[in-house]
């Protein structure tokens, strides 16, 4: 089983209603993964090689090996990364040259250089690792991505955005009430979340660059589980303003007394935790079949179909992969929570 690093799940799971859980999963064995060797870079103080090593280890898709030189590479190594650093002490500018090679065919898969200074070194290395990862897997890398987490310290709850590996954290919000149900928009410049600052769950959208935020859903009852539509102009939210809890579409605009919520999913007593793929497909959790299960529909109101067949009576919190070809979800069996 591949190693999985699930940085944060702010989930809405079953407890009669759906309740929050924070889950960290690290596990599995990477013994069958391809080996990638990272050779010490010329004129590097070790920080660049450390950054590259950490990036590829965190994917869980490679066995990462550090080597002093090419002579230390054995035939079982599939890929090799090597390079050098050139620095100009007068200007404080540096550049790193980075080469990715197939050890099996001795073919250069990537040969690239990036300039940086002390403040941009990590970003430069992450961008090179993105290019290398894509050259190997044909899939875009995540190393320049951001993560958002909800934290609690004493009586304070915070919303924090950081680099994908947890570095450079920035606090966007601190409040005395819980923060949960975090969702990025498709441009990566705004985030939606739920807080209880008004004594009940209310959905907000916050712009990362400006720091400004506004309510998008403050209807009667509970407002929760936001998910951006592909064009970022609407969000799917779970509302309890009518009987039960169901999924609606709302405009990505400041909420007011005239705001409308368009019914999207009314399938069970509780329909929640929507996620929308870039092609407009919809997955959500519903108790339609008696317990929480994952169902699929779309933004056009197609009849839901159940995704989690023969996987027990508790499956929640489904999320699409970036290309919408796969989903992740949480399963509970015999009291044990697993992520698939």
Question: Can you characterise this structure?
Answer:
There is one protein chain. This protein is mainly β and about 350 residues long. It has two domains: about 35-135, Rossmann fold; about 145-340, Neuraminidase (6 Propeller), CATH 2.120.10. The chain has two helices and 25 strands. A hairpin with a 4-residue loop joins strand 6 and strand 7 (about 105-115). The N and C termini lie close together (about 10 Å). The model is unreliable at about 1-25 (pLDDT under 50).
Query: What's the SSE pattern?
Result: EEEHEEEEHEEEEEEEEEEEEEEEEEE
Tell me about the largest β-sheet: 5 strands, mixed
- Terminal Cα span: 11 Å
CATH homologous group name of the largest domain: TolB, C-terminal domain
| Number of H/I helices | 2
Quaternary form: single chain
What is the share of helical residues?
Answer: under 10%
Strand content: over 45%
Mean model confidence by pLDDT: 90
Strand order of the largest sheet: 4-3-5-6-7
The value of Rg in angstroms is: 23 Å
CATH architectural name of the largest domain = 6 Propeller
Name the CATH class of the largest domain. Answer: Mainly Beta
Per DSSP E runs of 2 or more residues, the count of β-strands stands at: 25
């Amino acid at each position: 089983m591949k190693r999985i690093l699930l940085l944060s799940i702010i989930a809405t799971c079953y407890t009669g209603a759906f309740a929050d859980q924070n889950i960290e999963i690290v596990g599995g064995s990477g013994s069958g993964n391809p080996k990638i060797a990272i050779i010490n870079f010329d004129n590097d103080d070790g920080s660049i090689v450390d950054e590259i090593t950490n990036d590829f280890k965190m994917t869980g898709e490679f066995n990462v090996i550090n080597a002093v030189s090419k002579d230390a590479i054995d035939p079982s190594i599939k890929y090799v990364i090597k390079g050098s650093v050139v620095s100009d002490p007068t200007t404080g500018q540096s550049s790193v040259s980075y080469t990715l090679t197939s050890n099996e065919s001795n073919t250069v898969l990537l040969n690239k250089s990036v300039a940086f200074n002390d403040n941009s070194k990590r970003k430069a290395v992450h961008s090179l690792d993105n290019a290398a990862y894509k050259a190997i897997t044909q899939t875009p890398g995540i190393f320049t991505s951001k993560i958002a987490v909800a934290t609690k310290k004493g009586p304070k709850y915070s919303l924090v955005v950081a680099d994908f590996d947890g570095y450079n954290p920035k606090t966007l919000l601190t409040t005395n009430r819980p923060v949960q149900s975090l969702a990025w928009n498709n441009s990566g410049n705004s985030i939606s979340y739920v807080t209880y600052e008004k004594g009940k769950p209310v959905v907000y959208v916050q712009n990362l660059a400006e720091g400004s935020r506004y309510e998008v859903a403050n209807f009667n009852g509970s407002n929760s589980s936001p998910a951006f539509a592909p064009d970022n102009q609407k969000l799917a939210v779970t509302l309890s303003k009518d009987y039960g809890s169901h999924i609606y579409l709302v405009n990505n605009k400041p909420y007011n007394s005239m705001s409308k919520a368009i019914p999207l999913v009314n399938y069970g007593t509780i329909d929640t935790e929507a996620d929308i793929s870039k092609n407009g497909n919809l997955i959500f959790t519903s108790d339609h079949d008696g317990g929480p299960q994952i169902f699929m529909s779309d933004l056009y109101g197609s009849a839901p179909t159940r995704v989690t067949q023969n996987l027990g009576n508790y499956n929640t919190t489904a999320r699409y992969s970036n290309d919408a070809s796969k989903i992740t979800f949480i399963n509970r069996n015999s009291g044990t929570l697993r992520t698939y």
